[in-house]
Structure formats: C-alpha cells, structure tokens
Amino acid sequence: MAVVFGLLAGGVSVLEHLGHQRRCDDTAETTRISGVAPHVGSLKGGTNIKIFGENLPVDFSMTFSVVRVKFLSATHQYTCDVEETSVSTGQIECYTRAMPAGVYTPQVTLCSSADDCRDIPCLGQDDQDCKFETKTHYTPYIKSVTPTTGYPGTMLTVHGKIITPLFGSEQADNANGRTETIKRCYLDGAGQTCELRDSNGDM
Q1: CATH class assigned to 14-137
Q2: Within a 10 A sphere around the Cβ of 34, how many other Cβ atoms?
C-alpha cells in the first residue's frame, strides 16, 4: 500500500491535515440535539433557552460563529442569540428574540469555518422534547406608569403583567414559584437606568 506524503501551506503534512479533517468529521457525525427547556416562553423574546445534546463544540472563534441557533416554524425562522460562555459539550444556552405566537423547533448550526457549516436538527425521544411555544400568557407587559411627568429622582410606579417581583442578587424565592428575575429597568429613549425599589423604598 502506497503512502502519500506532502506538505501544505504552512508546513502541515497531508497526513496531519487528513487526520484533523477525519476527527472533525467524526465529531460532526456524533453530534446530537435531543431537547429544549423550557417549552414555553414570551412573544417578546428574552427567554433563556437550554438546548441539550451530545458532543457539542466548545472551542470558539473570534472571526466566525461556531454555534448558531434558530427556531423554525412551518414558514419562518428566528435567531436565538447564543450565550457562548454557557456552552458545554452537552448544552447550549441562548436567548430568544421576538416571535409570533406559535410552536417552534430548534435547529443548531455548527461551523468549522466561516464557509463550512452543517445543520443539526433536534431529535428527541418524544415529539414534545424539541417543541418551544410562544404564548401571550408568558409575555410580560407594562400597562401604565405613574406619574407621567416628573423631575430626576421621581419615584415611578409601573403597573402591568410583571410576572416576577425578584430583582437583585439577594432574593431567591418567589411566591408564585417562578424563577425569573428582573435584570434591569431603564427609560427607553433616554437610555437612563431606573433603580428598582420595593414597597418599603429599599433597593
């Protein structure tokens, strides 16, 4: 049996290159996507999604996205922004963008270069394992703000479907069982943060 040996640009041998390519191909062939959690979320986006799988890549590039996630319906697709620092070989975390009410399935795209990508569908043990549904019931909204005018430092009261009273790092329990927390509050357009306070006026 003849052995072909040669050098590619940069001094890498053909055998080394083929071996690296074979390892990449083997990894791609064994990559699996098996489910998502939670299975319901907001119409307006911002839902933290965990996508479960096997043999997911954890080496990231500064020049292209190694892992991309989209949620697909029968007619549309929507990007889910990957949190790269939360990716492991068995899990991807991403944040949804605004999507109309409906049922979606995730599609993970893995790239070994900017031009070499492959799509990995979600194949769970059960049909529901790979379903994510956006619902009005899970979508917070603001109904009113009082007062409507004021000077800097004015205390505002916000009414609406807030879902959770949790904010900051010291509160861990919620009476309604939800685990979501309020991350920030700011005045849209002005770009100014609004400090959250409880009913006693404490931060």
Answers
A1: mainly beta
A2: 15
